[in-house]
Design brief:
Chain lengths: ~220, ~70
C-alpha cells in the first residue's frame, strides 16, 4: 500500500527528504511521471499509529516540501495500491494537477476563526433574546461584524473560502490563499481587526499548505 | 525569523484547523481514502482530551471521509 502525501513538480528535484519521516517513521520515497512527482511512503498495511500522531506526520511531510516548492497536499488517508497506480493517476490527471500547482505556487493558506469571546471560555448557549426585534438586532450586528472581519482580509487574499458548519459561538471560519510575502501584512491586519472588534475573538493559524484550495483537482 | 516560525507555536491550539484541512481538504487521488470511522473518532477523542471541550464532528462541518478497503476498480 502506498500512502501519498503530496504531488510536486519534477524540476524541483532533488527533493530534500532527509530527516523527515512519514507515517509510522517510514522513509519517504517518490514516484514520478512526466513533470510530476508524488511523495509517498510504502506500507505493508495501513499504518498503525495514534491518529493524531499520524495527522501531524502527514502534515510535517507536506510542510517540509512546501518550504522549497509548490506542493499539492493530499487529503489525509489518500492511498493507492502500487507505484504503477500512482504513475497512472499522475499521467491521467497531469493537466489539472499542473494547473493546481500553478495556482498555489508561492502562496500559502491562512485559517481564520472568529468566536464570540464568551464561547471561548464556556460553550454555554447564548442567552435567549427578550424580543424578536432584539434578536434581529443581534443578528444584524453579527453579520456586520462578519463582513467587517472578512472583507479586508479577502481583499489581501488571492482566494477565500468560507467553511461550512460552525461550532457553537463560532462566527466565522474561513481560509485565505495568500501570496507568501503578504503573510506578515495579513497578520497585522488580523491584529488590527482584533483591536477594532473586541466583540469577536480571532484565531489565525498558518501558514498551511493550500489544502482548502486544491479540492477542485479531485475528480 | 520567517513567518512560518513565528506562527508555529499557535499550532498547539490549531488542531481544529488541522482537522479541517487534512480530513476535509486536500487532493484525493484515485478516490481511495484509507481511514476508518474508528480512526476519525479516535482523533476527535484525542482532540477532546487535549483541548478540554471541542465541537463535535458535525459542528465542525466535516464530512466523514469514506473508509474504503478495496482499491478503485
Amino acid at each position: 500500500m502506498i500512502w501519498v502525501y503530496a504531488v510536486c513538480k519534477r524540476p524541483g528535484l532533488p527533493l530534500p527528504l532527509p530527516r523527515v519521516r512519514g507515517l509510522a517513521q517510514a522513509p519517504l520515497g517518490m514516484t514520478a511521471d512526466g513533470p510530476l512527482v508524488a511523495v509517498l511512503s510504502r506500507h505493508a498495511q495501513a499504518p498503525d499509529e495514534p491518529a493524531l500522531d499520524a495527522l501531524w506526520a502527514h502534515e510535517r511531510v507536506v510542510e517540509s516540501l512546501m518550504a522549497e516548492r509548490a506542493v499539492l497536499p493530499m487529503r489525509f488517508g489518500t492511498t493507492l495500491p502500487s507505484a504503477d497506480d500512482v504513475r497512472q493517476v499522475l499521467a491521467g490527471r497531469r493537466d489539472v494537477l499542473l494547473e493546481a500547482l500553478d495556482r498555489v505556487r508561492g502562496r500559502v493558506e491562512l485559517a481564520l476563526r472568529a468566536m464570540q469571546p464568551a464561547a471561548c471560555a464556556a460553550s454555554a448557549p447564548p442567552p435567549a433574546a427578550a424580543s424578536g426585534s432584539e434578536y434581529l438586532r443581534a443578528r444584524l450586528a453579527g453579520s456586520r461584524t462578519l463582513a467587517a472581519l472578512h472583507e479586508p482580509l479577502a481583499a489581501l487574499a488571492v482566494a477565500a473560502r468560507c467553511r461550512p458548519g460552525r461550532a457553537p459561538g463560532e462566527l466565522l471560519r474561513t481560509a485565505y490563499l495568500v501570496d507568501e510575502p503578504a503573510v506578515a501584512h495579513f497578520r497585522s491586519v488580523v491584529e488590527r481587526l482584533q483591536r477594532e472588534h473586541p466583540e469577536a475573538a480571532l484565531l489565525c493559524t498558518g501558514p498551511w499548505p493550500a489544502y482548502s484550495f486544491v479540492e477542485a483537482v479531485t475528480g | 525569523m520567517s513567518p512560518r516560525d513565528q506562527l508555529s507555536p499557535q499550532r498547539d491550539v490549531a488542531l481544529v484547523d488541522l482537522l479541517d484541512r487534512l480530513l476535509a481538504g486536500g487532493v484525493v487521488l484515485g478516490g481511495d481514502i484509507t481511514l476508518s470511522i474508528a480512526d476519525v473518532d479516535l482523533v476527535y477523542l484525542q482532540l477532546r482530551v487535549l483541548l478540554g471541550s471541542v465541537p463535535s464532528l458535525d459542528e465542525l462541518g466535516l464530512a466523514l471521509p469514506r473508509a474504503t478497503k478495496e482499491p478503485p476498480a
